[in-house]
Amino acid sequence: MFNLIKKDFFIQKTQIGLLVPIIMIFAIFIENIHPAFIFLIASVFIPLNAYIFDQQSKSNILLNSLPYTRKEIVAARYIGAIVYMILSIALAGVILYVFQFDYTMSDVAIAAGLFCLIAAFAFPLFYFLKAEYIFIAAFIGFIVSTIILPPVFRFLAAHLTTITDFITSLSIATLYLSGAAIAIGLYLISWVVSQLIYQRKVF
Amino acid sequence: MENVIELHDVSKSLKAFTIHNMDLQIKQGYVTGFIGANGAGKSTTMKLIMNLLQPDNGEINVFGLDYASHEKEIKNRIGFVYDSNIFYESLNLKDISRIIAPAYTHWDQQQFKAYVNQFDLPLNKPMKKFSKGMQMKASIAMALSHDAELIVMDEPTAGLDPTSRRELLDIFQEVMVDGKRTILFSTHITSDLDRIADFIVLIDEGEILIDKPVYELQEQYAVVKGSNELLDADTEVYFIKIERSPNGFQALTKEAAKVRGVFGKHVVIEEASLEEIMFYMKGARNLYG
Question: Using a CB-CB distance cutoff of 8 angstroms, which residues of chain B are in contact with residue A1?
Fold first, then answer.
């Protein structure tokens, strides 16, 4: 399993080198950017790139011919994503600190939570769809969410005052804890779903 | 004689075709050539053996173990070679071996280096710049460097020039010298097998038509040539498929000894090549099937 996680590093050695300058560009040149967004970009970079790499070649045939089980391959993807997220956020934290870009631990927490949510939806979709459709799906998903989500939120905010009252009444700690619980819960559910999909996959 | 691979009553439906109730045993310590036309079901069968596909019905055992509970143990003892590049194209051989090596418990780095030297493979060139022959050799070097007892190769010679094919066949012969290993080797270029195969399995449309030792094939199967007058309802039964022309007939028999007895010197009997057997068997199926 550790070998599979290490593999994600090997296959994108050169691309990982790009991560440092990308974070530096954000830290130096873009002033009005939310630090949580920088952490999010940094954390998504390696797991997403690893996935794209695995799709470009027939690596599913390779990995499944090696002495690994399908369960392990999926587990390595999920555990590896968390490992690389933590490392990337730490790296981004150091770079932002060096360039005196202010951030708080809550920015880190928000980024980690969002990362779990994005991964929880993206990974099963990646396993389910064929590689050539993923970018189309991601693109359509992005367009649809930018068109539909803002009015939905506005509608919810305006009409469901009980919900918004409830959310604002929560203490910061409960808010963060429940956010974390939801993100982790979805991530775990997503893991199970991915495993079910991958077990049935035909190469 | 022990079986390394056993398929019992295996069925698998795919979009393109189906495998119906296949039974197959691959014997330990021998080279089995798996032949058939393109699309006959060779790759599907190989994928079933590698557990890349799971059967709808039936049982697959490798080394007497089943995949459901011994997947890692089985694959640890198999070396695989596929007809196309399955390695990360932008990586060089050194990095790929770093990914492959830790997966196996018996990886032998010295052995791997020895093959890399023997095959003249560059360690620092990305895979996508390798020629087809070099990719195959790289694949074979990795398949042979972890003390695998079974080597499964799906069309390892496809797309290679005659010189590289010959080189590869020499390597397989070397590998077999110690007698412990088993090779399952699919190809549609039957001449590859003339030198190295001990057993031949012929598959067509997902069905196994022949599964015999090479010497039995050579003994039993023959191409018979003679004049058309020799053919009638009584004599035609000796042939699997008959091709007639105004100058006479040419036919495949699997009862060479009987044909020799019946026709004597009236016909010419020649040893049937694998290609001829494959061609006539397929012809016979199209006729009656």
Answer: none
